[in-house]
Write a structure and sequence with these properties.
The protein has 227 residues and is an all-alpha fold. It is 63% helix and 0% strand. It is globular and about 55 Å long.
Length: 227
């Protein structure tokens, strides 16, 4: 299970930092008020998502453990799906296994999944560019820098699962399935830019393989991206 407590602590620190520092940046003209408000709301959305994912994961783990203990065998997909529908509302939504293409109901907050996902990548890029200067100036410890980046990367990995992404046609794709329905092919084409980005960044596929699997979305050359 991902280190949800550590991720939540980092997201809370980032939200508090933005609330403290953004008014000063606005007064200096480094940020507009609209940018500051957007940034604070975004950090708040990340924190809320982490809490929701954590609650769903804990509920699912507890269900699996109880059913394994009582039945003496792995729970069926149907049993997991049924139990997921009974998870308390604060757990976010139905939570199925990866094989069953599980996903919580999309967050109905101010930002769609792709917006939150891209903004988190932007924040990681900012840290990777800015933190070395802060370390040189004595404003940040090397260990703290590494820890902050590691924890935020863990949150990005949660977003990479695309559990909140919803296709326009309402049909979840089955990536690389031998047979797909027309609706599944349509939703896969919609998801392809995100999948290509994620799989390359996580080093799950090579650039050559991406050009085969995602011919319309693979970049011309491999970029150095955060994991």
């Amino acid at each position: 299970m991902p280190p949800f407590a550590a991720i939540a602590a980092e997201l809370a620190r980032e939200l508090a930092s933005r609330r403290e520092n953004y008014p000063r940046l606005v007064s200096k003209g480094n940020l507009t008020q609209q940018q500051a408000d957007h940034g604070i709301l975004m950090a708040q959305a990340w924190a809320e998502d982490c809490q929701r994912y954590s609650a769903a994961a804990i509920a699912r783990q507890a269900f699996l453990q109880s059913h394994h203990a009582s039945a003496g065998a792995p729970a069926s997909i149907d049993a997991i799906a049924k139990a997921a529908r009974d998870v308390p509302a604060q757990c976010g939504a139905p939570y199925l296994t990866q094989d069953a293409r599980r996903y919580p109901i999309a967050n109905k907050g101010a930002f769609p999944w792709a917006t939150r996902w891209r903004a988190l990548q932007d924040e990681l890029r900012r840290r990777e560019k800015q933190y070395p200067n802060w370390i040189k100036q004595g404003q940040l410890d090397q260990a703290d820098s590494a820890q902050r980046i590691e924890r935020l990367t863990e949150m990005l990995h949660l977003y990479d699962e695309m559990v909140d992404w919803q296709p326009r046609n309402g049909t979840r794709p089955r990536p690389f399935a031998a047979k797909q329905t027309p609706a599944e092919r349509e939703s896969f084409d919609e998801a392809a830019p995100y999948l290509c980005d994620i799989m390359l960044r996580r080093h799950w596929i090579t650039l050559d393989q991406a050009r085969i699997d995602f011919p319309h979305h693979a970049p011309a050359e491999q970029k150095e991206l955060s994991a």
